[in-house]
Write the structure tokens for this entry.
Amino acid sequence: MNFDTRHDRSPSFAYKWEKYKGKDIIPCWIADTEFRCAQPIIDVLKERSEHGLFGYTLPKHHEPAISAIVQWCKKRYDWAVHPSWIVWTPGVVPAFNMASRAFCGEGEGIIVQTPNYPPLLAAPAINKREQLCVPTVLENGRWTLDLNVLEEHAAKPSSKLFIMCNPMNPSGSVMTKDELDKVADICNRHGVTICSDEIHCDLILDDLTHIPASKHEALSQNSITLMAASKTFNIAGLGTSFAIIPDVKTRQQFVSAGAGIVPWVTVMGLSATEAAFTRCDDWYLAQRKYLRDNRDYLLREINQINGLRAYSPQATFLMWVDASGLGVEDTQQWCEQRGVGPSPGRDFGAPDFFRVNFGCAKSYLEEIVTRLSVP
Ligand SMILES: Cc1ncc(COP(=O)(O)O)c(C=O)c1O
């Protein structure tokens, strides 16, 4: 459990590092962390591979993984999830694309927040649906949804689905109960289903409670909630996530949209998820503390660099940096010329910004700060 260690990720062809291979650029872009998994996850994967048989496993038969999700949701969110509500998906991206087809017809509207995770912004066009954007606004140093624009878009008869992202990527805001109440009210009045991408919800860094959309009384029949152990426990390469859908008709619609196209999750992913949610609490809490310290350090330093401005993300290991004060044409190029490789803001719909992944050893962050400080 040493988060300070730097690991050579080249044996896994880690995408984050492959992008800048052979260049003196510290990668801090794609959203996985530089942390080695908790030992119980490594142990279960070793055990499972020693077994030596890797044939078909129907996810609904993997009772330990299902009850691990049920326990986790109860413990973390005081949410009593019935096992039948769980639908395994080989990633959250396929899940919100399935939702796009399940709850919205061709040519009808999908509401998305901007800026946002690029594959989420891409979902409406990929599925031949119309994209309706709701901007994120800054209120008292915290990014939040513009509810007036949400109301306007939701009121259009062709709007059928809102793919929400909570906690928000890239801003790291966690929706309050009041905000969720308002979103629920707007979407319910206009018959808009909510698909809530909550992949980052277990990484709350402040003293806050995350409320899963489908736990909300007003949304339990009109929403699906997407979660995974992947970000929190650094197992995204195992391609395993799940949707929680309390309403049977909504669940059937979602499942039908992926039938014959979306594969089952893998046996390794099921075992890793089970271990993550049941035997890794110490690692989980220690990582959260490490990330909190990293966030506070990075925020302080970034805000001392001329032309850069950031606000404290309440969750995740991602910091959204406003670089408009630099007055440069290409902020990504400005970073890369200094030897830092964040996620380009333009991919999220905000070219004057960049996103730094601080899920890494603090020594990397110190180097990143030093490099970005070069005038
Ligand atoms: C908001 C959000 N949703 C989904 C994903 C990816 O999900 P998956 O790898 O399970 O498809 C990411 C990864 O960065 C993300 O930030």
